[in-house]
Write a structure and sequence with these properties.
The chain is mostly helical. It has ten helices and three strands, in the order E-H-H-E-H-H-H-E-H-H-H-H-H. It has helices at residues 24-54, 61-90, 97-130, 135-138, 141-167, 184-188, 196-229, 234-263, 271-295, 298-310; strands at 15-17, 94-95, 176-177.
Amino acid sequence: MMENKNHTFNIDRDFILVGLFSSFQASLVLVSCVFVIFIMSVTENALMILLIRGDSRLHTPMYFLLSHLSFMDILHISNIVPKMMANFLSGSRTISFMGCSFQLFLSLILLGSECLLLAAMSYDRYAAICYPLRYPVLMKDAVSRLMAAGCWLVGTVNSIVHTIIVMHLPFCDSRVIDHYFCEFPALLKLSCVDTSRYERGVDVSAIIFLLIPFSMISVSYVQILHTVFQMKSSEAQKKSLSTCSFHMVVVLMYYGPFIFTYMTPRPYHTPGLDKFLAVFYTILTPTLNPIIYSFRNKDVLAAVKNVLQIF
């Protein structure tokens, strides 16, 4: 443990974000790409929410949960990318203590809630495909609302606890965060005290928000595939297999990097690797989710056509 003189709780001191890119020339191209992805993500997810709210054919539990996923994705990418771009364009890499606290708080809410929501969505598909006759009872409106509210509530409580603990740690004089946003493992590295006991508590949260939901999703899709292979229609099999495979790709892109970042020992981490993996669950999946989960669906495409006919 370091000397007390190197500890500071001063909330007036800013943190410094190293950022995602190194050289300026490469950064200019990559930042432009990130900006395009950001606009695409916000537009796709906002359109998805408007379509679900405006078309009565989409007033089902599946699309209700999808609307929450789209809202989470808008908030998540908007919590990170605008600040990253503002720092790059201004040449400043600072973020205030309160700004960092809020970014961490919102990021943890959305990451945790989305993990639980993806599990709820997989259960919805499991119920629809494996128990189609009982689906209206298993996933009635009250159940889907309770699922969505539970995801937000549990994610928020978890975020409050971890944000308070992390932001009350004594940080060393160097407040350089080797990341492009205030991510919780990167902040722990700045602490001047032993955080091993707290990190054991983090492992419990990781089991609740990562391993259990990922296991539920995996089991759900195994059961779905088992049901699909028993179908007599080859066309129905191909359609279901295509949908399931795309869904699993997105799930793996989200949970895989997330599990590595939050559940592997520190010696396996490097700043470059952590930033690369974080891109998947902070920038790429918010853009891919509406495409994979929604815009490949005939009901959504029909709703889009109706909107275009109006104009």
